[in-house]
## 1
Amino acid sequence: MGLAQSPQVSVTRNHAVRCIVCGERTSELAADFRCAHCGELLEVEFPGWSGGAAPDPAALRATWRERRTSNQPLDASGVWRFRDVLPELDDWSHAITLREGNTPLYDLPRCAKSAGVTTLLAKHQGMNPTGSFKDTGMTVAISFARQNNFRWVACASTGNTSASMAAYAARGGMRSLVVIPEGKIAWGKLSQSLDYGALTCQLRTDFDGCVRVLDEIIRRYPIYLLNSVNPYRLEGQKTAAIELLEQLDWQVPDHVIVPGGNLGNNSALGKAFLELKQIGVVDRLPKVSVIQAEGANPLYRTIHEKGGKELVPVEAETLATAIRIGNPASWRKSLRVLEATGGHVEQVSEAEIAVAKAEIGADGVGCEPASAVTLAGLKKLVKSGFVHRDESVVLILTGHVLKDPEYTIKFHRGDLSVPRMDDAEFHALTAPQRKAPIVLDASADAVLHALEADEAEGKRHG
Ligand code: F0G
């Protein structure tokens, strides 16, 4: 297929878009959302804020609270409720919303004990309409796609972005193209993209290979890219940070801990904290730390081996498939947030992830494997002395426990085979957390016997 005429993406209204490296501002965005001058990523900025037109912080807090009592679709969305600090649409009726955001903040008492902190909170972004944090960014970016008259939207994905995009495209009457690595997507995520009607292409490659193929597609066909290089995605994802602070009555926690894959989410949350401080909604910053799987640790290696100067891409391998990414697009944005907030980057093993996931489940909350890296990483940050026992810590849980049931069932049955670790060693390390289902004859005696055995076992383990 040859070159096709693309609808033009133009920047309007209350914001500008500039390159994160050379600072060049642009009013017409290229299909790949990269700087025409130097090829780096772009970000949204609000020039009015430094020009004396910053919104009044007390008025913002009051407006945001008041909108929570409104049934208007924009106000009922936990993203658009914060539209005063988001890029403005030409026409608010272009917003495509599934009432995303408004996610719960849970305390995790058992996990706190296991990590060695007094209290531990989790902001569960898996409680979004399609089961992951991606919905908060998707509602914003896809609304801009509609505003710019695109018929097709596309993303390369490890499964959650694609599930989210497919749902929002369906809601907005648009066509969606999903490009995912064959065999490396959790079933829950793949099934979503099918039900929402996306054209779903499973490529014989990994996520990084899918990104390369999609890069060529967007140059050859008029299609709006919804990966997190799209700066409007990150604008929507900022709202999780705002909502978190609102839930804490604007008391800033000491630490926020985020999983790192393509590194868009920690960049978005960090941007929100910095902007809220800039306009005076809060007066200090949390330390935003990033946790990666040992088998998919390019940011960790970039910092430890290159002092953050250049990216160290890796061949990614982890059962936390959501973050199986070796060449993350937003590494520079992520580094900026680590530096600006004083956060750390840590890596965790497959066994540490599996144990942490079961522990989050045992607190009655649950999450998918990629989200559990946060608790696993926190344990290491406590041990190293970076996080102190009495500091306030919030984990960002990014995906719902039902996204990847195969991992959970195999884990509890003892059938999980992990990369980079001997199976026997993995099973020994995770044995205390496993609780396999029991197959019994259909008799009350058999079930009561199992119950008594479980009770005795429970007593032994306190
Ligand atoms: N957690 C989950 C559940 C994810 O799906 C992702 C990314 C991340 C964490 C990492 O976030 O990329 O912003 O650093 N999933 C993408 C996808 C890549 O295609 O669904 P990140």
Note: The mean pLDDT is 95.
## 2
Amino acid sequence: MALIVCEQLHLTYGLESDVPIEALHGIDLTIDEGEFVAVVGRNGSGKSTLARCLNGLLRPTSGRVLVNGLDTALRQHRLTIRSTVGMVFQNPDNQFVMSTVREEVAFGPENLGVPRPELIERVDRALRLTGLADLPDVDPQHLSAGGKSRLAIAAMLALAPRCLVLDETTALMDPLARRETLALAQELCRQGLTIVWVTHHMDEVAEAARVVALDHGLLGYDGTPHALFADRALCAKLGLDLPPAAQVAHGLIDRGLSLDTLPLNAAELVDSLARAWEGRS
Ligand code: ADP
Ligand code: MG
């Protein structure tokens, strides 16, 4: 079932100014409930603008965005839409306002007037899901980078969203924190949450079921990561690197090795090389 629908979404910044910037040029995109969608594209291609349109932080200049059937342009839907689609940004620190982990997670739903027993239940669940259950009294500023992103996610989960949009949340993280954050998003998706994962890390894209690439404010690709990374010309046009395993595989294919599928990560590369080795002669 469609959770988010963009219809001919146009977004122009500074409409009143002398030099308006057209960031999105007519995007048609449907995201179904429960999907894990990676969003990629070079800097300035419109990823963050699109992300902000998905929960009504930005309203279309023309076209429509519907969240669970509700038009983001209408003021009366704003709160419902913001709690249906939660946003996590690149520096979660900037989002924190409270002095303990538990208070931070309770802050959003408390403000929405969620009744006490349900509030406690939601906060406990969010802390448990994000592995923060043992750290309720810690100052958010004292968490590791991975811990901060988990807290930002927990704070959103406490609003009982159906979708999380993570806008380059892992961009400044070390590899361990990146893996931790991606694994958490994948687990939440398995539990039914829709995930929109904006990134420029191609190894993360390889883990998504679907990739949407933006190209100068237009949809440049919408499909599986395998089909995307199989097409080197398209990746070059979109300004995307290939995941290292796919680079190695393309190099070997260029030299005449035949592989049955294009591997996108180290484990898949080992498997296809092993199969090619067994089938040699
Ligand atoms: P990305 O996240 O892919 O790097 P953005 O959505 O941030 O792309 O930006 C798309 C285009 O819109 C760029 O040309 C950028 O300079 C412009 N832009 C983004 N935010 C603003 C803003 N607040 N005001 C004016 N122009 C903006
Ligand atoms: Mg961005």
Note: Residues 23 and 217 are 5 Å apart (CA to CA).
